[in-house]
Amino acid sequence: MVLLSACSSVAPPQPNPEIEPIRFLLSFDDGPSASTSSNPTAQILDTLMNNPVQPEIKALFFVQTRAAAAGGSVQGQALLQRQQREGHLLGFHTATPGHANHRFLSPAALEQSLKDGVSDLTAISGIAPRLVRPPFWNYDERTFEAYQAHGLRLLLTDLSANDGKTWGINGSLRRRSNLRDQLARAAQQINVGALPAVDGVIPVVVTFHDLNPYTARHMQEYLQILMDVAEDVGLATDKQPFYDNRDALQRAALRRALGDPQQYARLPGLWNWIWN
């Protein structure tokens, strides 16, 4: 006789009612895209504005203001204006002709890059940027102090789609499990009170790359995946699970910014192994 038994699934853990709900703080690196057809940055902006998960999401874009394949192009300049106009927050990434590692720039070159980037973004938004994310996630005490001298706070991330490779095979078959694993690690910090609440929610920083066509095509799916994996790991999301206001977004990002360059911070993917 063959005995058949139904497979039983394990119920996800229940959220702790004494812990504030989370809200995902979406950030994007390396853009805006200079592409003249199927522009991935434009596609992402369209999805953030119109999607069934939460319409009119506001995100933080760490931009390259002078790179030929990004903000230095006609298309890139128009997209920077669109990002500002649609209520997103602009942060500094680079103001060099390419995606230069700040640690490898001379003091004079780094200083000029920071001056140029702050000037470029101030011209667009009317106020100086407050946030920076270093290229390749690489920084040291020298670059950290240079950022602070220009009023810039360094923001890292809790979750990364690991989508920085934007050419060739640039998709991910593990996008759901990857984000779940990272959020489970963040949940451990949340459960012991290591991540702060801001305006009644706990900001969880998520990073994508808006130059990646695969990311652009799957942005709506990524939004739903974030909702799903929050439930999987037992984290309650706020009734507005993503930021919808630029000022609130900036307050949260500034609160999560790194305060000490000597403080250990886990970096995404291989970068953690390379730099840490």
From TrEMBL:
Residues 22-238 form the NodB homology domain. Pfam families: Polysacc_deac_1 (PF01522). GO terms for molecular function: hydrolase activity, acting on carbon-nitrogen (but not peptide) bonds. One of its GO terms (biological process) is carbohydrate metabolic process. It comes from the Bacteria. PANTHER family: GLYCOSYL TRANSFERASE-RELATED (PTHR10587), POLYSACCHARIDE DEACETYLASE YHEN-RELATED (PTHR10587:SF125). This is Polysaccharide deacetylase family protein. The lineage of its organism: Bacteria, Pseudomonadati, Pseudomonadota, Gammaproteobacteria, Pseudomonadales.
